[in-house]
Specification:
single chain; mainly alpha; about 0% strand
Length: about 70
């Protein structure tokens, strides 16, 4: 039975639900890969780095010491 024939038996709402479930599963799979690559949650740290500019001065001092 070709896929087009099967689709005619699936209501549109069910098709949307299936699509939504697939997107959610894909996102969960992506998150698992990201967690495996780096268990650190950088998104959680981002507001700190954006609001605190002291790290820039520290970085500049370290770079200046290496490359005068």
């Amino acid at each position: 039975m070709p896929i087009d024939e099967v689709k005619c038996y699936i209501p549109e709402t069910a098709e949307k639900d299936i699509h939504h479930m697939k997107l959610r599963q894909d996102e969960q799979d992506r998150q698992k890969v990201l967690d495996w690559l780096s268990p650190i949650d950088y998104a959680h740290q981002q507001p700190f780095w954006l609001n605190d500019y002291s790290w820039i001065r520290t970085f500049d001092l370290k770079v200046s010491a290496i490359y005068p």
